[in-house]
Write the structure tokens for this entry.
Amino acid sequence: MMSDLFSLKGRKALVTGANTGIGQAIAVALAGQGAHVICAGRRTCDETVALIAATGGNGESLLLDFADPMAAKDVFTGAGIDILVNNAGIIRRADSVDYSEEDWDAVIDVNQKALFFTCQAFGRELIAQGKGGAVVNIASLLSFQGGIRVPAYTASKHAVAGITKILANEWAAKGITVNAIAPGYIATNNTEALRADEDRNSAILARIPAGRWGDPDDIGGTAAYLCSKAAKYVTGAVLNVDGGWLAR
Ligand code: NAP
């Protein structure tokens, strides 16, 4: 019987976009289970590191800007990181008939291209070291649905689900699990405009069986589980954390 099924003691994680929102909650959750967490952001993650320290955990801040989608290519070399959470993401809204090439490229670069090549750099290092590990990619309900006015975001999040599945297939025998979490409607900067629009907000809440939006913490615990021994035979999954929205 394993008594430390959910412990991440002795593990080293890198979480992208860890300065705020879901990434911050995931960083705090992983540290809470004992992982040392490298909190990566295009801005400093000092606030997250302080939150981790306040609960007796270990974290550090790293500047990593996916304006260059290859930014993480050398980050894993010799660093002993065995958990990667690809959380950084952007959303740009416009009707599809008006959608600009600039918005398309910006969203695809961060949400899709950077995510794939960060996974590649992580997987290369672990495989070279002969070590196992865990990847958690942050997908979306829009990995399954079309949404409206977010064509690049929807395309990129469908891609995140696909990338998760192919890497799970390729790396399962190497002891590297690759899963995704598909959040529904979570209170972060990403959904600020929607939550401020009373009509859109109440229309969305009416479709969520749980009857509320999610908190970033709702995602943090799920990520910690997927990185733990408890999930060692879970790979290629895209887990909905959405208050039942997709099932409805
Ligand atoms: P958020 O508060 O906007 O967080 C997004 C994070 O990504 C921030 O840390 C942001 O940094 C970072 N980021 C953006 N561009 C970057 C770049 N070029 N390089 C490095 N980091 C970059 O929103 P969130 O909701 O927590 O989003 C986290 C993830 O959850 C995203 O992948 C999002 O698509 C996904 N998601 C969210 C929801 C939801 O309802 N909130 C639903 C489904 C999926 P800055 O703070 O500097 O912008």
